[in-house]
């Protein structure tokens, strides 16, 4: 199923002061390390975590793990310009009531395939192992992956030895601008939200479409959304800016809706 998200409004609006200093948008941040790979953990504000279900806050708060892009060669959990990316993403989803974790992963040329996907598997296992300490809900673990980060995530999902140890914890995966073309080795995937910018390069658009069709044929629950008015990089930079972040609202609603449907 394919839908289109409306382009950002062109009406000028004042930028809230909180967006000028992203520290004001995240309630707290915990910097953790595992085998020299660091994780930033963004905690939702107390108001966003004040759920009314008959369960504990940790149990009801979903956890999102984000893997950034960067062409395999560059990028990190906190990047240029001015270290706003991907701090803006962590702040955005935390403000929605979603505990958000952004790990680094190793870059080429210091690694070769499938070591990036091994880092993804290790990140999932770290979250599960440390869920009580960082207040993460490992029973409701969601993934958002952009570009090269999504290729590492897909490598983890499509490699049985990497996917099987973490499969039971994953409740949903969002790919953003991830060029994947496959025809086999699809296991029992969780629901997938496949996002592509309207102005993606042609080869990326084609591979995303083919990936969606392959998943549908294999019986995977998948939805494809087109982000009108965006290119390959702009969706990430739009979050917490006040412009063009509607796609993030859609992802948050998708995660929070699944949280109530699958509450355990």
Automatic annotation (TrEMBL):
Protein name: Alpha/Beta hydrolase protein
Gene Ontology MF, one: hydrolase activity
Superkingdom classification of source: Eukaryota
Organism: Crepidotus variabilis
InterPro entries: AB_hydrolase_fold, BD-FAE-like_dom, GDXG_lipolytic_enzyme
Pfam assignment, any one: BD-FAE
Gene3D superfamilies: alpha/beta hydrolase (3.40.50.1820)
Keywords: Hydrolase
BD-FAE-like domain ranges (all copies): 60-150
